Amino acid sequence: MASQINNRRLRIGMVQYDPKITQVEANMKRVRAFLKDVEPGSLDLLCLSEMALTGYVFPTPNDVLPYLEDPKTGVTSQFCAEIAKEFGCFVIGGYPEKLREDEEHPGNAVGANSAVIYNPNGERVGDYRKTNMYEADLPWVKPGTGFAHFPNLSPALQDLTLGICMDVNPMPDVMSLPAPCKLASFALSKRSRVLVLLCAWLANEEDLQLRWCLSNIEFWIQRTLPLWSKDSPDLVSMSEYPAPDDHDETILVVCNRTGTERGTKFAGSSIVVRCSRSQGKYEIIGILETEFEGFRSWTIE
Fold this sequence. Notes:
Oligomer: single chain
Helix content: 10-25%
Strand content: 25-35%
Number of helices: 7
Number of strands: 14
Largest sheet: 6 strands, mixed
Structural class: alpha/beta
Distance between the termini: 13 Å
Radius of gyration: 18 Å
Shape: globular
Strand order of the largest sheet: 5-4-3-2-1-14
């Protein structure tokens, strides 16, 4: 029994901070400083945010061109590989990916808004390109072709689904339920134990005087409705993502950034949520304040 409990234990860490636009080396040093007290072997998963080292707002293709990265040898990939091996855990981080010369470059697209995952040996597991675009992506980003699922990562993580920011909202004009919850439905159909969402999510004016961006937290949890309800009237059928009857619990990890960049204010408020379909409820395990910068971790038994 003890070994089964230990296998279910999941230790999740994340860095929420204000990466300074284009200051990649300085941003890496800041992340390193946040992680200085982390003990090797103390985490199963470490998450960095969307475009974690470069910053997010690039108004034109020319602005982002000097910071595009190769998905295997780029700065973010090398950094994630190093800290994954150092701390003996899986690491996920977002970065601006340079398009290959032999692939289609639609319109002004010069890159993709991507994320990469490395295993505890510092080996690349795979990557993912953001599928649903936000307005800040439109000047230079080529959309991905679908969500990413990584099976059998470890006894603790098991299967993991990865999305980036607006992937959780395929219909930007629809802000309330009922609405298609495609990313959550995909994660459920894959029996993912963990759903990770890397974000550069903006703050809402109504929350600026609060410790947390509560409206954003509510929105993220709403958009994962299939993970914590079987019979809500707000559920929208997703025939392409059939829900298995035998999958109950999913851990939602939303790793957001904070700070202000080129006049854009970000929400912080990163969360870790335990979702249970059989109990029809969710439980917020961890939550960071809007302005918080640093590292935090949580253990889920």
